[in-house]
């Protein structure tokens, strides 16, 4: 119990930890609002306020977040080749998303002209979608490389006909990395669906259940990735 509490404290001390918790509040309240809207309008209104408040809080808390992608590229752009190109494009899209998200937040709270909200939402969501597509492709390429490396180690093991502790450690590391990348892919696909709902509204992406489930998948996948080991 104490260990869980300690991990929770560490998790909530991170910017991403707080974001995933508030994101959970945002999309749970969205689903509850949809569920009780027809039968308990007063309760639905309260949960709608909670959803809007959580969404705006997350935008405020992400102030300056667009610099994260720039810093990652500046300090560690990755090895030369396709993965570096994908990293540049993915982080560029994410920087556009977070940068214009500031103006979307300011227009929604009334500091800027409210008419800017639609335009800022489109630009922000478009950058977000572009970034997620390249992040997903990069993660799949890295997962593929990990699978190849694991198979190579297994073949070498069979040839040597003996267990190697170093090889076990490498395989374990590859598998942990694969799980983390699959969680990232799940989160990015879920967020891509939410972004598409802003870019090109359609019955599937804009349905409350689709948005609610997508938001929770993204939040909980991020929760898993950020939870202290």
TrEMBL record:
Principal cellular location given in the protein's record: membrane
Keyword Membrane on entry: yes
Key words, A-Z: Membrane, Peroxisome, Peroxisome biogenesis, Transmembrane, Transmembrane helix
Pfam families reported in the protein's UniProt record: PEX11
Gene Ontology CC: one annotated term: peroxisomal membrane
Compartments where found: Peroxisome membrane
Domain of life the protein comes from: Eukaryota
Gene Ontology molecular functions: identical protein binding
Keyword Ribonucleoprotein: no
Membrane topology note: Multi-pass membrane protein
An individual GO BP term: peroxisome fission
Transmembrane segments: 83-100, 120-143
PANTHER family xref list: PEROXISOMAL BIOGENESIS FACTOR 11, PEROXISOMAL MEMBRANE PROTEIN 11B
Assembly information from the UniProt record: Homooligomer. Interacts with ARC5 and FIS1B on peroxisomes.
Role: Involved in peroxisomal proliferation. Promotes peroxisomal duplication, aggregation or elongation without fission.
Family: Belongs to the peroxin-11 family.
Designated name of the protein: Peroxisomal membrane protein 11B
